[in-house]
Specification:
The protein is of the alpha+beta class. Helices cover 30% and strands 18% of the residues. It has one domain: HIT family, subunit A (2-Layer Sandwich). It starts with 5 loop residues before the first helix and ends with a helix.
């Protein structure tokens, strides 16, 4: 746990939250500043700043909880769909340095945008550049 982390304080019960799910490794609660009705944050109970910091078993637990929660949240607010995503690092908009997935219910005609809208201007990459990136990613998996 990190003493100055708001999400760790929620896990410890020091800060109240509208918790919708909890098990030994994951907690989920309604976002205090929701983008839509039912907007839920799903976090590991242990403090980890970035997705790459998560042990594999905890990552599986986190994504398992998201898998289970998505349909329950959509049903609870009668949503048509949902966006699920992570802001992984400060440059990606992560405001709280504790891994947290967002489940954002979506409604027909709500004015929201697809996940592609977060990227800004799209790069113009050649086939050679794309091939190089693909090779670099594969080699970094080690």
């Amino acid at each position: 746990m990190s003493e100055d982390c708001i999400f760790c304080q929620i896990v410890d019960g020091e800060i109240p939250a509208r918790t919708v799910y909890e098990d030994e490794s994951v907690t989920a609660f309604l976002d205090a500043n929701p983008l839509s009705a039912g907007h839920t944050l799903v976090i590991p109970r242990d403090h980890h700043a970035r997705l790459a910091d998560l042990p594999a078993d905890l990552a599986a637990d986190l994504f398992g909880a998201i898998h289970r929660l998505g349909p329950a949240i959509e049903s609870a607010v009668d949503a048509d769909a949902a966006n699920v995503g992570f802001n992984d690092g400060e440059a990606a908009g992560q405001e709280v340095p504790h891994v947290h997935g967002h489940i954002v219910p979506r409604f027909e005609g709500d004015g929201g945008a697809p996940i592609h809208a977060v990227g800004g201007d799209r790069p113009d990459l050649s086939d050679e550049e794309l091939d190089g990136i693909a090779e670099d990613v594969a080699s970094n998996l080690g």
